[in-house]
Amino acid sequence: MRHRHQGAAQVHQLLLILAVGVVLSVSCCGLHPLPDPLITDPGEMGERIAPPAEGAAFFAEARIEYYGDGIARKGKMVLMAQAPDSLRVELLSFTDDLLSVLAMRGGEFRWFERGRKECLGGELCAAPLVARFPMVSAPDQLIQLFRGIVPLLPEPDRRELRFSREEGLYVLTLRQGSIEQQVRIRPDGRTAAGVRMAEGERTSLDVEFGGVIEEGGASVPKRIRLQVPQDGLDLSVEYRDFVTGTPWTGDPFDFSCPKGTVYQALDCQEE
């Protein structure tokens, strides 16, 4: 009988050691706890993180760093947007000298860069030829990304959702043929941490959101990094302040070419 009690005690001690080992291993590896409640339906998650685009005016000032086409720039950005597709981006030096203006509305654009005699424009499909700015041919999606909202892949063939305990983030994966969209979402199930678009093995877009800045009941990411690896574009935005819902004075999206410049219309071209 005594041997039986000793055996049971040894088994109990062994189980206790294993339990402690599991706890320590989880602790040492930094695994995050599962959210409570845990969202498991990809469709529900899509509805939570992609609200309908607001038509309210959005104005923001930010610090930017831009790398692309052998050009490196650091300065200020003034952003004016109105969903679904009206957008104006002004890039300025740290001394507030205007460097370039990109204005888009109704499927057309105007672009001007200091030092050039030409003021360029045309249909949006021609904008990437000159503007050297990520996603210039899709202002409706770019406006949402500037607001920290991820435009989801429409009508995907497959949807998957999991929670990564290593990252502490939900991972929503949507696939449409060879195109894959992977959205990283914070444990609240509402705030995007980033999105990656890929076709096959090639990443076409990678966006990271960091921190939060709030104003008047609205919020945007404090920092946004947008990379287009195939074009060598890398844009980092850090918001200083923003305003939503304030009516515009005049029409910022109707950009007139500066005096002394010559307007040149561009035709869309295939790469």
Descriptive account of the structure:
The radius of gyration is 25 Å and the shape is globular. It has a 14-stranded mixed sheet with strand order 7-8-9-10-11-12-13-1-2-3-4-5-6-14. The model is unreliable at 20-27 (pLDDT under 50). It has three helices and 14 strands. β5 and β6 (118-123) form a beta hairpin. It has 271 residues and is an alpha+beta fold.
Question: What's the short version?
Answer:
By secondary structure, the protein is of the alpha+beta class. The chain contains three helices and 14 strands.
Strand content: over 45%
Q: Report the span from N to C terminus.
A: 85 Å
Shape: globular
Q: What structural category do the secondary elements indicate?
A: alpha+beta
Mean pLDDT metric: 87
The largest pleated sheet is described as:
14 strands, mixed
Number of E-state strands: 14
Portion of residues within helices: 10-25%
Low-pLDDT regions: 20-27
Strand line-up in the sheet with most strands: 7-8-9-10-11-12-13-1-2-3-4-5-6-14
Oligomer: single chain
Report the total helices: 3
Radius of gyration: 25 Å
> What string, H for helix and E for strand, traces the elements in order?
HHEEEEEEHEEEEEEEE
